[in-house]
Amino acid sequence: MKIVKNINIIRNCIKTWKADGEKIGFVPTMGNLHEGHISLITSLKNAGATRIVTSIFVNPTQFAPNEDYKKYPRTKNSDQKKLCDNNVDLLFSPSEENMYPKNLLGELVIKYPEYSNILCGAHRPSHFNGVLWIVNKLLNIVNPDITIFGQKDYQQYILVENMIKDLHMPIKIICSPIIRESSGLAISSRNQYLSKKEKNIAPKLYEALRKASISIDNRLKIVDIEKNGINFLKKNGFEVDYFTIRNPRNLNQVDNNQSLDESKIILTAAKLGNTRLIDNILLL
């Protein structure tokens, strides 16, 4: 596996591969790699990528001042071993100076108010501006044929999908299913912040989603399902940011006038102690 920090070097490498007819798959990450990240690599290979590129960059612009940028887990050696073990061809590991020259940390903005001001965006107002900025930079540097994002961060996926389409990037984007622990808890780098007691409670988040899914099948009112989900989580010690049922194509709210056959996504975000967890179930 090649490990590259310089932007010109990675561009030249990608250019050579493409000239040889290789299909480039790209997985952007912030490191602290787990089974969820590895599943993205596998999915890219299954989608036809012949060269796999990953990036590891803890992006400062997507963290608010009171969030966990400084303590976000950085596990360079174990990350590199996992990537090697899974036959990744190139790791792009830039510095902050590479990605934000002249300390330009807030001047370029890509906005989708209809998507970024709701759900997680309502509770993390600057988050998605930072996400779209760094993803735009990375896609322009790597110039992949295919990129992939996890379903767990579904709002992020929708935003990036729209950016790729609206900026006419010749890139296919894939949404990869959530990978869960045996308890049902969605695997996340931030799970390690949970105490032992909190780790036992955390699977209740997925349980709330499953209960809501059953309620939809039983044709309960949407507003009652959402209220029941919030109450269930609060009863189990969560501080709920949202528990909502949306249209998976545009994240619009749904109601009982919609056809029961239409697809839906149930999304939730809640804090357990100091740890913010997100999860969803996609109903197709």
Describe this structure in words.
- The protein has 284 residues and is of the alpha/beta class.
- It folds into two domains: 175 residues, 3-Layer(aba) Sandwich (Rossmann fold); 95 residues, Pantoate--beta-alanine Ligase, Chain: A,domain 2 (2-Layer Sandwich).
- It has eleven helices and nine strands.
- A six-stranded parallel beta sheet has the order 1-4-3-2-5-6, sandwiched between helices. The protein has a three-stranded antiparallel beta sheet with strand order 7-8-9, with helices on one face.
- A hairpin with a 2-residue loop joins β8 and β9.
- α7 crosses α8 and α10 packs antiparallel against α11.
- It starts with a strand and ends with a strand.
- The model has no long low-confidence stretch (mean pLDDT 94).
